[in-house]
Design a protein that fits this description.
- By secondary structure, this protein is α+β, with helices and mostly antiparallel strands.
- The protein is built from 14 helices and 43 strands.
- The strands form nine sheets. Strands 8, 12, 13, 19, 20, 22, 24, 25 and 26 form a nine-stranded antiparallel sheet that branches. Strands 33-34-31-30-29-36-37 form a seven-stranded antiparallel sheet. Strands 38, 39, 40, 41, 42 and 43 form a six-stranded mixed sheet that branches.
C-alpha cells in the first residue's frame, strides 16, 4: 500500500495578527487593484506577550517553509475583472503573487519580530506590504448588472500527490476611525473613480452594502449603470408626466343628524343600552383622524401583555383572540383608506392608482393616522432600460431614494416646511413609476408647491436573492453623487425636472357667519298688480365675509328644502354611515380607555381568573373596543371607494322622497390688478338661478357692472354730494356684512327657502403652463359646513286685492265683457300657470258685497266656502265651473240687490303641509247683469 501525506496549507485568513484588505485606484485611467497586508502587534504586549509570540512563531515558521516551496503558488483575483462562460459561470482572471518577495518583505520581518518578543529583546515594527496589479475592463459589460464584488487570495499546492488550494475572501478596506463617516466611503469613492467610463463612456459602477446580516463581513454589491442604456441600467424620469394621489376626504360637507348611540358601561356586555343623541356640524375627517390616532395607541406598552395573557389563558372560550382581532381590523382599515385614494387633479393618470395605494399601504401599516400626516403621493413617469434576468415568479429589483436637491417656489413657501419620503423605482425594462409621499407642516399656507428641478437620489436597492427572500442594499454613495471630484454621469439621468404638487386640504375652513334672512314682497310696493306679480317674492340673506384669500363663498338657496338637507346631499349616504360609526367610537372610547387603564393595565399572570373583577372589566372593554373599531372599518370600506382592495356591498339606504330644488351661486372676491379695487364675481349656476336674478349689496356702496366681465361688479360709494370712490380689496372686510337678494321666486312653486352658505376650498390649487387653474378632482373640493339658519323661511304672501276682470291669460284674454264663468276661468288659469305638480289645496270664501242705500254702509253676505283642490292638469277649470255654478245657484235662490260685487278670499296651502297657507289673494269682481243667466 502506497502512503502519501497531507500538507495543510495555511490560508491568509489564518495568518496570526495579519489582515489582508483590498482597494482600487486608477493609473492613467486604468483601474488598479491594490492588496494590503498589515501586521497588528497589539496582542504581543503585556504579560502574555512572550507566550503569544512563541505560539504564533511556530505558525509563521511553517508558513515560511510553505511559501518558500517551489510547489506552492499564490494568486489573487477580483470579480469585477471576471468574464462569463457559456453556462453563466464566472471565469476569474488570476494574478500571480511574487512569493519570494512576499516572504522577504513581510513574512520574514514578522518572524524576526516574534523572536524578539519571545526572547524579550527589542523588536522592530513590521511595515505593511502592498501588491498592485492593473485590471482588464473589456469584459465588464458581459457581467450581470447586479453582482457581488469579491476579491480572493488563493494559495495552491501544485505537487501531484498532495495538490490542493485554499482561498480566502479578502475584505474591502474600511476606515472606522472617523465618527459619522461611513467606513467604506473612501473605498467606494476610489472604486467608482477607478471604473468610471469603463470600458466605454457612460458606464458607471456603483457600490452598495447589505447591512442586514451583521454576522457576515460586508461584501459590496456592484450595480452597473449606463447613461446610454445599452450596457447597463438606465432610467429616464419624466417629471412633466407626473400624477398626484391622496385619500379622498370622507365628506366635503359637515353633517348634522340624530342617531342612537350604543352605551358602554364598565363591567357589562356591550352595548349596555342605547341613547338618542343629536350631532351638529360633524367634520368626518376630524373625527376620522382622532379615531385612527386612538386605534394606533392600542395595544400600548401597558396593555399588550395583559391582552395577550387574557387570550392565551383562554378564560373565556367564546371570545376571539383580542390582539389578533384588532390587528385584522387594522388591516381592513388600511385597505379601506387606500381604497379611497384618487388623483387630485382631473388630468391625473388613474391607471396607476394601485402603485400609489402600495406606497400609502407601506406607511399606514406603521400608523393608520399617517393617512392625515401626508398631503399627497407623487408619481413621476419613468422609462427603464435594463437587462436584468427577472423571472415572472420573482420580485422585481427596485431602487429607492430621496430628493437630493431642488429649487422650490410656491405661495409663501420657504422650502423648509415640507418633507419627501423615500421613492421606489422598479428596474425592469419598460415603463415604470417613481412613487414617493409629500408632506408639509404648513398645509394651509400654500395651495401648491412648485419645484423647478427635482433630483432622484437613489440610496437603496432591493432585490430577491431566493424565492420570497428579499434583501435591501444600501448605496455607499447615492446614485447621482459626485464621482472623481466631478458631477456624476448619472446626475442628468436622475433629474426629474420641474414638478408641481397640489396641496389639497382635508379640513374645513372657518365657516361663514349668517346674519339674517327675510322675505321681500315687491307687489305691495307697486300699483301694477296681477296674479303673476302677486305670486312672486324675493329671498334675502346676509352673511359675514371670510378674510381668507384662498377661499371663496359658495351658496345654495334650497327651495322647498326637506329636513336634514345636509345628510341627503348626493353621494353622502355611505359617508353618513361612517359618520355614525365615528361619532359612536368617540362617544364611548374615553370610557373604554378608562377601563384599559384601570383594569387591563393592572392585570398580572398571578391575578388573572374569571372571578377577578378587573378581568371581567378588561374582557368587556376589549370586546367593546373590537366592536366599535370593526364598525368604523366596515363603514370606511364602503365610503368613497375609488379602487377598493376588497369587494364591498353598498349599503341599502333608501333615498328621501323629497328632493330640494337648489339655486346655486359662487361669490368670489378678488383685487382688480390695475387698481386694487374690490371685484365681486357673482356666478350663478344653472338656468333657474340665472332667470331668477341675483345681486349682492354692501352697505354704503352701489354695485357697478364691470365692462367685459360678466357677473362682476365694482362697488362705488353711495354718499350723495361726495366724489365717487371705490371700495378697495384691502378694505373689503371693514364692513364684512354682505346681503344677497334672489329675485322672482314663485310662491306656488317655491313655498319655502333656506340658504346654505359655505366656503369652497381646493378648487384652485395648481396652474397649468398657460396660467389657467387645473381642474381638480371634485372629491377633493371642500365646502365648509353648510351654515344655515335655525329654520327655513316660509313666506305667507298677502297680496292687495286683484280685480278678476283685469286678469288676462293666453286662454282667456281681457275683454270688455266676460261672463262670470269666463272671469273665474281666467282667474284659475292665472293661478295654475307655470305651476309644478298635479294640484294644491285651496280655500275660497266667496261673499256678495253691496251698499245699503239708507246709511251707505257696505254689507257682505256669504255665498260659498270651498275647500278643495286646484288641479293643474285642467288649468283649474273644474274649480271655476264648480264655483260659478255655486254662485249662480245662490243668485237664483237669494236674488240679492243689484249693483254689488263678488269678494273672493283665495288661500293656497303648501302641498307638503296642508295646514300651512302660502298665498292669500283677495279677488273682487263686479256683478254683471247677465250673471243670473249662467
Amino acid at each position: 500500500m502506497q502512503l502519501t501525506y497531507s500538507n495543510n496549507i495555511i490560508a491568509s485568513g489564518q495568518w496570526p495578527s495579519v489582515s489582508v484588505t483590498y482597494a482600487f485606484s486608477a493609473t492613467e485611467k486604468i483601474p488598479v487593484l491594490n492588496l494590503a497586508f498589515t501586521f497588528d502587534p497589539s496582542c504581543y504586549t503585556g504579560s502574555e506577550a512572550s507566550a503569544n509570540a512563541q505560539a504564533d512563531l511556530l505558525t509563521y515558521l511553517q508558513l515560511y517553509a510553505q511559501l518558500g516551496s517551489t510547489t506552492i503558488k499564490a494568486t489573487y483575483s477580483t470579480s469585477v475583472e471576471s468574464s462569463v462562460d457559456a453556462t453563466g459561470g464566472f471565469i476569474p482572471v488570476n494574478h500571480t503573487v511574487n512569493l519570494p518577495e512576499l516572504v522577504k518583505a513581510f513574512i520574514n520581518p514578522i518572524i524576526i519580530f516574534l523572536k524578539a518578543v519571545a526572547e524579550g529583546t527589542p523588536s522592530v515594527d513590521v511595515e505593511p506590504y502592498a501588491i498592485s496589479s492593473p485590471l482588464a475592463t473589456a469584459s465588464i459589460t458581459s457581467l450581470p448588472e447586479i453582482m457581488e464584488l469579491n476579491t480572493t487570495f488563493s494559495i495552491e499546492e501544485t505537487s501531484g500527490t498532495i495538490a490542493g488550494t485554499v482561498t480566502t475572501n479578502i475584505l474591502p478596506l474600511a476606515d472606522y476611525t472617523i465618527s459619522g463617516i461611513p467606513p467604506f466611503l473612501h473605498f467606494a469613492q476610489e472604486f467608482e473613480a477607478a471604473f468610471i467610463n469603463q470600458p466605454s463612456a457612460g458606464i458607471v459602477l456603483k457600490l452598495a452594502l447589505n447591512n442586514s446580516d451583521n454576522s457576515k463581513a460586508p461584501s459590496p454589491t456592484i450595480i452597473r449603470f449606463d447613461t446610454a442604456g445599452a450596457k447597463g441600467i438606465k432610467f429616464l424620469l419624466q417629471g412633466d408626466q407626473s400624477s398626484c394621489f391622496a385619500p379622498l376626504p370622507l365628506l366635503n360637507s359637515l353633517q348634522s343628524f340624530t342617531t342612537n348611540i350604543s352605551l358602554y358601561v364598565e363591567g357589562q356586555p356591550y352595548p349596555a343600552g342605547t341613547a338618542s343623541r343629536s350631532f351638529s356640524a360633524i367634520d368626518a375627517d376630524v373625527y376620522g383622524r382622532k379615531v385612527l390616532e386612538a386605534i394606533d395607541q392600542f395595544p400600548g406598552s401597558r396593555t399588550a401583555v395583559p391582552a395577550f395573557l387574557l387570550s392565551a389563558g383562554k378564560l373565556f372560550t367564546t371570545d376571539p383572540d383580542y390582539l389578533q382581532e384588532i390587528l385584522a381590523v387594522k388591516q381592513t382599515l388600511v385597505n379601506a383608506i387606500t381604497g379611497t385614494i384618487d388623483t387630485i387633479t382631473e388630468s391625473g393618470d388613474k391607471a396607476h392608482i394601485a402603485e400609489a395605494q402600495l406606497k400609502w399601504t407601506e406607511l399606514l401599516q406603521d400608523k393608520l393616522s399617517y393617512a392625515y400626516s401626508y398631503t399627497a403621493a407623487i408619481q413621476a413617469a419613468a422609462v427603464i432600460q435594463s437587462h436584468l434576468p427577472i423571472q415572472a415568479t420573482t420580485t422585481v429589483p427596485q431602487s429607492t431614494g430621496y430628493r437630493l436637491n431642488g429649487s422650490i417656489t410656491g405661495m409663501g413657501a420657504s422650502g423648509n416646511e415640507f418633507t419627501l419620503t423615500g421613492a421606489g423605482l422598479p428596474l425592469t425594462d419598460g415603463s415604470a413609476r417613481l412613487n414617493y409621499l409629500f408632506g408639509t407642516e404648513t398645509v394651509s399656507a400654500n395651495s401648491s408647491f412648485t419645484f423647478t428641478n427635482i433630483h432622484y437620489n437613489a440610496t437603496e436597492l432591493q432585490q430577491e436573492l431566493q424565492q420570497g427572500l428579499v434583501t435591501t442594499l444600501s448605496f455607499i454613495i447615492p446614485a447621482d453623487g459626485a464621482i472623481a471630484g466631478g458631477e456624476s454621469p448619472l446626475a442628468a439621468m436622475c433629474d426629474a425636472g420641474p414638478l408641481g404638487i397640489p396641496v389639497p386640504l382635508r379640513e374645513f375652513p372657518a365657516s361663514p357667519v349668517l346674519d339674517e334672512q327675510h322675505v321681500a314682497y315687491p307687489v305691495n310696493g307697486t300699483h301694477a298688480l296681477d296674479v303673476d306679480a302677486a305670486r312672486k317674492w324675493n329671498y334675502c340673506y346676509s352673511y359675514r365675509n371670510s378674510a381668507v384669500a384662498q377661499d371663496y363663498i359658495t351658496a345654495e338657496i334650497r327651495i322647498n328644502p326637506v329636513k336634514e338637507t345636509a345628510s341627503t346631499l348626493p353621494g353622502s349616504l355611505q359617508a353618513m354611515e361612517l359618520c355614525r360609526a365615528l361619532v359612536q367610537f368617540n362617544a364611548v372610547y374615553p370610557e373604554i380607555c378608562n377601563s384599559f387603564d384601570n383594569a387591563l393595565a393592572v392585570l398580572t399572570p398571578d391575578t388573572i381568573s374569571t372571578t377577578d373583577a378587573a378581568v371581567t372589566n378588561s374582557r368587556y372593554a376589549l370586546l367593546a373596543f373590537t366592536a366599535i373599531v370593526k364598525d368604523v372599518a366596515e363603514a370606511w370600506a364602503l365610503t368613497n371607494q375609488v379602487s377598493p382592495l376588497t369587494n364591498v356591498t353598498p349599503l341599502n339606504v333608501s333615498a328621501s322622497s323629497l328632493t330640494a330644488s337648489v339655486l346655486s351661486h359662487t361669490i368670489t372676491e378678488t383685487a382688480q390688478p390695475e387698481t386694487g379695487y374690490l371685484l365681486v364675481n357673482i356666478e350663478p349656476e344653472g338656468p333657474q338661478t340665472v332667470s331668477s336674478g341675483i345681486s349682492l349689496i354692501i352697505e354704503g356702496y352701489t354695485a357697478e357692472p364691470v365692462d367685459g366681465s360678466a357677473n362682476t361688479y365694482l362697488y362705488a360709494s353711495a354718499e350723495e354730494g361726495e366724489e365717487k370712490t371705490y371700495l378697495l380689496y384691502s378694505d373689503r372686510n371693514k364692513n364684512s356684512l354682505r346681503t344677497v337678494i334672489l329675485e322672482g321666486l314663485d310662491v306656488l312653486n317655491s313655498q319655502s327657502a333656506q340658504v346654505a352658505v359655505m366656503i369652497t376650498r381646493n378648487a384652485k390649487l395648481l396652474r397649468d403652463a398657460t396660467g389657467s387653474w387645473q381642474p381638480i378632482n371634485p372629491g377633493f373640493i371642500y365646502k365648509t359646513a353648510q351654515v344655515t339658519f335655525s329654520g327655513m323661511l316660509q313666506p305667507l304672501l298677502r297680496s292687495q286685492a286683484i280685480n278678476i276682470a283685469s286678469i288676462g291669460t293666453k286662454n282667456y284674454p281681457v275683454q270688455p265683457q266676460r261672463t262670470l264663468s269666463e272671469n273665474l276661468l281666467a282667474m284659475c288659469d292665472a293661478l295654475t300657470e307655470n305651476v309644478n305638480g298635479a294640484s294644491y289645496n285651496v280655500r275660497i270664501k266667496c261673499e256678495y258685497t253691496y251698499t245699503l242705500e239708507e246709511n251707505n254702509r257696505p254689507v257682505s253676505i256669504p255665498i260659498a266656502l270651498l275647500i278643495t283642490e286646484l288641479r293643474i292638469d285642467d288649468k283649474g277649470k273644474s274649480l271655476a265651473v264648480s264655483l260659478a255654478a255655486g254662485i249662480s245657484g245662490w243668485l237664483k235662490t237669494q236674488q240679492p240687490v243689484t249693483g254689488g260685487r263678488y269678494d273672493l278670499a283665495f288661500t293656497a296651502y303648501a302641498p307638503e303641509a296642508p295646514q300651512r297657507p302660502v298665498l292669500e289673494i283677495p279677488f273682487m269682481l263686479d256683478r254683471q247683469a247677465d250673471d243670473e243667466k249662467i
